[in-house]
Structure formats: structure tokens, C-alpha cells
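Problem 12. The chain below contains 154 residues. Write out its predicted structure in C-alpha cell notation.
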Amino acid sequence: MNIKAQSQVISTILLILLSISAAALIMAFAIPFVKNQLSSSDCFDVADKLEITNGQYTCYDDTATPKQMLLQVHLKDTDNIQGFVIELGEASTETYEIKDNNAPPEVTMYNPANPIELPGQNQERTYRIESPTKPELIRVSIKGRLFFLAVSPI
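Solution.
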């Protein structure tokens, strides 16, 4: 009777059982942890609340001095939204953070005499952004979020 051969079979079975139990233990803790983190995250709470309105007020005006991008933003729900970020993409990307009464100097309202304001619930606001070149892509995101809520080609 060869004891070494039986020893190798038993150790292989024990290693397989150890691997299966370790995987089960990790899944028992990891899956509920990830689900709790996703449910407590507010990233998904703001999805579909902000969008770029395509129409006559979203366009690039190269006849204006200085050249400018007109961008109309529609906000469906204002809960927990203190601002958003507009990103104009081309060879280089410019980012503009919009808050009530606060925006970079390149950004004004459609009527420049009006102060910067966020759209109210189910409202739209049009912003003028000085841009020497026509952007290839516009992205609008809720401030502090890692994903973009609206993407529009020009």
C-alpha cells in the first residue's frame, strides 16, 4: 500500500475545499458590503435629472464677438443639487462649474444682464460660454459625481 499517493490526493482535496470555503466567506461579506455602499450612494439619485436641451438655444455662434457656445440645460428635479459642471471637449477640454450667482467669467446667462442662476424644477436656463473654437462634445454633470448625465455632440 502506497501511503504517499493517498497523502497527495487528500492534500489536493483539502486545498480545493479550503479555496471554496475562502471564496464563499469572501462573497458572504463582499456582496452585502457592495450592495450597502451602492444603496447609500447618491450618485444614482441624480441620474436623469439634468440634460442638455437640443434646439435653437444649444448651438455654437461663430459670428458673435467673442465666439461663444450657447447651451440650454434642463433640470428635472432640484433636490440636493447645488450646481453642475459643463465640459466643452475638443483637442483640449475646458470645465466650467455653475452655481447660483457663481460661475467663471467666461460663462454668462443668455441675457448677460441677468445673474447666473440654476434652472428650477422642470425649467431650463441658457448659458453663454466664450469658446474660441467649436467644441466637439459637450458634457454636463452634477458637481461631485463621477459619471456624466448628459452628452451631446455639436
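Discussion. Residues 137 and 153 are 5 Å apart (CA to CA). Students who got a different answer should revisit the alignment rule from Section 12.3.
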